Amino acid sequence: MTSGVAPGEHVTSEALAGALPRQGLNPHHCPYQLYAEQLSGTAFTAPRAQNRRTWLYRARPCVATSTSFAPATRKFAPTEVLAHFSHDSATAIPNAMRWKPRTLEQTRTTQTFLTSLKTVCGSGSAETRSGFAIHTYAADTNMDSVTLCNADGEMLVVPQEGTLYVRTEMGRLAVPPGFCCVLPRGVRFSVDLSDELWPKAACASVAAAFLPQEHEGGGSDDDDNNNNNNNKATTTTAAKRHKPEANGQHKTPDNNPFIRGYILESFSGHFQLPDLGVLGANALAHPRDFEVPAAAFEGARVPGEHFLIQKFLGSFHVAKLPSSPFDVAAYHGNVYPYRYDLRSFCPMVNARYDHADPSVHTALTVPNLLDFVVFAPRWLVAEQTFRPPYFHRNVSSEYMGLIYGMYEAKQSGGFQPGGASLHVCMTPHGPDAEACKAELNRETTPHDTPQRLDGALAFMFESASIPRVTPWSVDAVERDVDYESCWRDIPVSFDGPETL
Predict the structure, then answer these.
(1) For residues 294 and 119, what is the distance between their CA atoms, to the nearest angstrom?
(2) I need a surface site. Which of 35, 141, 428, 454 has the fewest CB within 10 A?
């Protein structure tokens, strides 16, 4: 794992020493008789600062392993995924909406990361490369020899339950709850629930990543000695409370592994760090905390039954491969998967009075379309201020998820870890009645006592586009149809005249 690489920066990695050509990108003969293949993430003529591409040096070019695609059956693919949002395919609902955590469906015996995908809402279309989609997953089995290639967009994945063991063309990523990962458009990947398919050497440094990292400032000598290996972690109270079991997996009642989480798919552009403006050079998500997989390969000469699933304009197609597609011995470029520990986020909060806008919690952005906002552990220090998030109507639309704990603005118990809420353009929202009452009853002084928020981790997908909701999300058994009741008991104590 290579750390300290901001999204979009150039990376070089070799699984075999000398596998990268020493001169040129596409030499007549590559080292180890590898083939050179370019993966373009933008148009060839995109401005240099925005241009994305990676050169892969692999045992077989992808074209040599391709067979004709056929429509994928339910054995391989989900049935309720959308990549085009219109009046005919999805519904415009101005109500506040909320969902309880997903559980495993009873209609099929096992679910993979891929087959369990459900689209909640979205806007625009993959066909015009505009807009986005939000999905959830809830699975209990490996993808094994099935690989996904998403031609529709770039996916930001936020695990809430269980660790994702992600095999990609560029290497391997372990993504436990508390982390996120980004999987670029076109990068082939497979998601497993354990590391059984990983070489043991690749697993040696993974275990520590299951513990949340707290950055209190200063750091220890040990921390300074491990700047190039971000797997060292400090166990905190929250970490102990949410520490996964020994193999990194939570269990279902029948003792099987289980993964659950959220996905934000951008049909347009790439996730990148936001500009900091007047915040200066050091704030929010630091480049040093992003991690890129080291090159790794498998099965270059070993035949077997492998399947490639292509997500293309929201439909899924399957082709049989003669060997594993993860046969890249080296790569260099700026299209690659990466992961980020959400608890390393450095939030900026108001130091005197009022509540800051949620934009100061932005970790990643797709400019003019999407923001990924992280509500990491932080202090509330504003004096003589209503400290919970303020009551709000917003031109943007906000989808919010909870990884663990209780979100400070929702204290009635309805917003559960693994659940979600959606407030679209101009839909009123804010702290529920319980949070409001607790804050109004909080004893204040001219110099209010600071409060530390460290028992919860939440996030928000925010968009300038207005999403439509899918038939599945409207009819889902997890939908909390009485969500709006959480605001009904907000105290009304206005003591002015009835009319003026």
Answers:
(1) 31
(2) 428
Which residue from 217, 346, 374, 369 is spatially nearest to 276, judged by alpha carbons? 346
Q: Are 85 and 267 in contact (CB under 8 A)?
A: no
Number of neighbours of residue 395 by Cβ within 10 angstroms: 8
List C-alpha distances in Å: 214 to 217, 223, 243, 342: 9, 11, 14, 10
Residue in this structure with the two tokens 């040990």, named with its chain if needed = 222
Six-digit token pair at 455?
Answer: 């028992």
pLDDT, tens only, 113-156: 999 999 999 999 999 999 999 999 999 999 999 999 999 999 99
Catalytic sites, residue numbers: 355, 392, 398, 423, 429
Summary mean pLDDT of the chain: 87
pTM of the full structure? 0.89
What is the pLDDT at residue 256?
A: 67
| C-beta separation of 169 from 188 below 8 A | yes
Say whether pLDDT at 236 is over 90. Answer: no
**Across the beta sheet with 328-333, what order do the strands follow?**
11-14, 328-333, 53-58, 35-40
Residues in the chain: 500
Task: Name the 3-class secondary structure at 121.
Answer: strand
